[in-house]
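The record is kept unedited without comment:

——
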Amino acid sequence: MGSTCSHPHDETGLTDREIGRALAAAEARCADQGERMTAPRRRVLELLLQAGEAVKAYDLIARYGLDGVAAKPPTVYRALDFLEKAGLAHRIASISAYVACSAGDRAHAAAFLICDCCGATEEVTPPEGEALHRAAEAAGYAIERTTIEGHGRCPACRVAA
C-alpha cells in the first residue's frame, strides 16, 4: 500500500537472506502438504515478503515481471488464491490487499492492525482465535480461515499526530 502520510516510518520489508529463508520454508511447507510451489506462486510470495506490508493485487501484477513486463492478472490471482489457502498469505478484505503470513509454519486465526493514516499492517494473534475454532467445532463447523481486522493508527502516526 505504501505510506500516504508525510511523517517518517521504518522500513518493513525483509532482507534478502530472510526472504530466501522464508521462501525455502514455504516450499518445504507446500511439499509437506503435497502441493507444488510453482514459479508464479513463488514470485508472488517473494513480492509480498519484499514489500513487508499489505499490497494490492494490481500492484503485484505490475511488479511481477523481473524484466519490467507485468504479469497477466489471472496468474497473480491464482497464485494469491493458492498462497491464501496454503496459509502463506492473508487477504485483508477491508483494504483489498494481501500480506505474507508472519506466522510461517502453522495454520492459525489471523488478526491485523491496520493504520488508517499510512496503511501499515501488523499481524497479531487474536486472543479469541482458538475459542472461535472450538465453538465452531462444537457446532459441527470446520473453519478454514479466520481473519480479524482492527483499524486505527500505528505508533509512528500516533506520535506524528
Notes: The mean pLDDT is 86. Helices lie at 16-32, 39-51, 57-63, 73-85, 129-138, 155-160. The chain has one domain: 16-160.
